[in-house]
Amino acid sequence: MLEIRPTAIPEVLELEPRRFSDPRGFFGETFNRDRFREAGITIDWMQDNQSLSREPFTLRGLHFQAPPFAQDKLVRVLKGRVFDVAVDIREGSASFGQWVGRELSAEAFNQLLVPKGFAHGFLTLEADTEVLYKVSAPYSREHDRSIRWDDPAFAIDWPNGGNAPVLSDKDSEAPTLAEAGSPFSIGDLQT
Ligand SMILES: Cc1cn([C@H]2C[C@H](O)[C@@H](COP(=O)(O)OP(=O)(O)O[C@H]3O[C@@H](C)C(=O)[C@@H](O)[C@H]3O)O2)c(=O)[nH]c1=O
Which structural domain, as residue segments, surrounds residue 153? Predict the structure, then answer.
């Protein structure tokens, strides 16, 4: 019913709900609390967010909210395709500074679970791409943080084919993680 694929960073998961296809199209449960709990994912989702990015190579990220408004995110694509990235910014983590990237698409019907303590961003690969994601804490403008998408400390291999990404003003002025500092430590997140 729910396929869960591990990634190189064990806390980041790729999920693929089952689809039932018929001549009309398909049906699938994109979130089922009991199935998630059976799989050990007990996150209490709080808010759903949707964004539309008109231009291909629009890049939103890298974002996180500082505690006590840190968010887990469950990301999927309604239309189009993105390259979705989670970067471990938990001080003291064995994978600190490492990133996981997955192509998510309406076609593939896959999702990425990005836990608290990770910065998140995505690059759209098609025009008019719509992304829908659940978050486990409410939005707080005061706790919202942006880190440079091309922070050299992460060396994320964005598939932008040399195109300059379309960025918000906030994201184009974002600091590196070294400049901003991380509010997360692995010890705090494990308790
Ligand atoms: C994220 C968010 C934004 N907003 C408002 C603030 C602002 O006026 C407008 C656009 O916000 P942003 O420019 O931050 O939107 P965006 O750049 O799409 O931000 C999102 O990027 C992805 C990668 C994430 O991981 C999300 O958590 C979020 O940070 O929407 C809310 O009201 N609630 C929210 O939860």
Answer: 2-18+35-190
